[in-house]
Amino acid sequence: MSEFLINSWGWPPFYAHACAAFVAVVLILHVIAVGAMFFIWLERKVAGRIQDRLGPTRVGGKFGWLQTLADGIKLIAKEDLMPADADGMLFRVAPYIAFCASFSSFIALPFATGWVGLDINVAVFFVVAILGLEVFGVILAGYASASKWSLFGAMREAAQVVSYEVPLGLCIVIPVTIAGTMDLTKISNLQAGWFTNWYIFHDPFTFLTSFVFFSCALASVNRAPFDLAEAESELVAGFHTEYSGLRWSFFFMAEYGSMFLVSALGVILFLGGWNGPIPLGQFVFGAHAAELSGLAFFLVNLLGLANFMFKVVLGVTLMIWIRWTLPRLRIDQVITTCWKYFTPIAAVMFIGVISWQLLGLPSGGDLLPLHVDGRPRLSGDVREQHLKGAVLPQGSADRHSAARRALEGNLVRVGGGH
Amino acid sequence: MESINGHTLLFLLFGALTCFFALAVVFSANIVRMAFYLILALAATAGLHFLAGADFVGAMQLVLYVGGTLVVLVFGVMLTAQSPFVSLRTAGGDWVLAALIGGTLLVILLPVAFQVGLPPTTTDGAFTDETGGERITSSVPVTVPTATRIGLGFLGVPGDDFSGYLLPFEIISIHLLVVLVGAAYLARAKRRTTVKNSDVSGGS
Amino acid sequence: MIHFLSQPVGLTHYLVVGAVMFVAGLVCMATKRNALGVLMGIELVLNGANLNFVAFGSGFLIRNPAYQLGLDGQIISLFVIVLAAAEAAIALAIVLNFYNNHSTVDVDRADELKG
What we know:
The complex is a heterotrimer. By secondary structure, chain A is mainly alpha-helical. In chain A, 63% of the residues lie in helices and 1% in strands. In chain A, strand 1 and strand 2 form a beta hairpin. The model of chain A is unreliable at 372-376, 378-382 and 388-418 (pLDDT under 50). Chain C is 70% helix and 0% strand.
């Protein structure tokens, strides 16, 4: 988009980049805000069904669509309380830290080929890094509330998140070693083709790894059964005991944002990202989205976006389902699960996947190879070319290559451009 | 009107944040707030790393430093944040001495920074693009992916602008292992003695 | 101001920020009485040095390869980050031990070995 503004309308580069960045930010904000609204409604509905109730039914028609909005208005109108002993500055700033961390990691998250806020080379790493900062919001909130329940919640959160980053990192490294890149767009595009190309079906080890990843992701975003930081049964409401009104809702937005994010990460790393189970776009247009341009690119990407969103929402629904099904663990059980089970399992899986690659055993993608233009996709030498960007150029490089050359190295490279 | 350089604008933003919060760490008396300012300062430093083209180091800074080390540090702060220790006042004499030393060091460092850092202008084509208003695009090179080459460096495969670091890498892995065992031992030995003491006192 | 903003970022910018961080860390180490405050000072000093390493190795700031540290700068800064993590773990274990034995984290009270 910034290229378009500069080349067609003759904007100065800085304003073009700033404008493009602003558009991306607004879009991402909407993903989080609307996503949170939808997921909170979904959570209530699912919880209701699981507990043999109906969930919200009144506000906004038959299914209670507008229940979240009504609650949002209620939260805004609520009185904003702060305990007298609280550390005022930290108490005020903590929800924003949690929200900012959750929001910032969306910057590097691609939603379809080239549709990404900032296309960076170490995207996986970046997303996990920023997501890990969310813990500070919780810790500071817990400390600043000057309440022992909050402090207990914060301490639990700190111990839990630091521990679970280890197996989570190990699980993330596994698809990265298979793909040979940390670029989320490339990782996802490498799984194009039939669903057997998805990394979850790459070999038995990745299949198991994806479940470990999902569990660790649950723990790292503080969802039940790992939501020790806000255990109602023993800690009142944990770290957000003293929060009310809009600030409290920021914590919730952050939580649902992170759920969406880890779900999206899992989808990209294991479930093929925006590639559907059947390579429809490749049948119709004869090429992957990254090789297309114009309207075909847009249509395929739109289909990819729908795929991606569907899978991500499925992941979030699974998280909600687990929350309302499983009881909460104790803190010692949580830490034990991490260090005695998840970390060794993830390490063994890592060794297994590497050995699988080393021995050249067949991967799932070999079961249903897809031939386009007479050449099999994603096997052997073609894969090498993928990595070099020869077959699947980064983003929509063809259309923009001239503009890119003119614009070498701008830092605010906002993807999309449509 | 001269065009604004987006890179410079972002640098000034992150640089100012880094300096401000680094100084806030010094001048804050409350230990928890110090930890908070330190988190922000180091996160802003990660932003500076990204702006310098070191994306892997920047992400590493966020994961290891801010997400790992500082969480552990905050953990320690909270374990010891009893009211007498939350804000320990420093004597005035210490401040004067420290300000003297720090000021002297700053006076030494800043001229050196300006001497060393002056861009080698005209001849080598570094910052010579004075012709058009397009400096934002041309004064900053393309982002070169660093992760692969850093990985090769750690595996001991030297490249054209870096050497192999296999031995230091192995040494540091062993070092980390030793440190982890040592930290676990330090944390554990203490607990045994306290248990023993309480047993003795409880028995008698 | 606009002129200031249109200048490209050079090595000097980074060195100045690094120097400020370094000095802030030094003053922090010298003035804080809380052991964890001293630890924070060390982290600041390490980060100031780290920033310089990255700056010297950055192709963004020094275009001439003859003056550049290359990727070595980034690799060294990675070593520094890992070592800082190790150092923080050990220092924290020591501080907590001290706190358990003396019920204080004031470094001025750690004077048992004074002759």
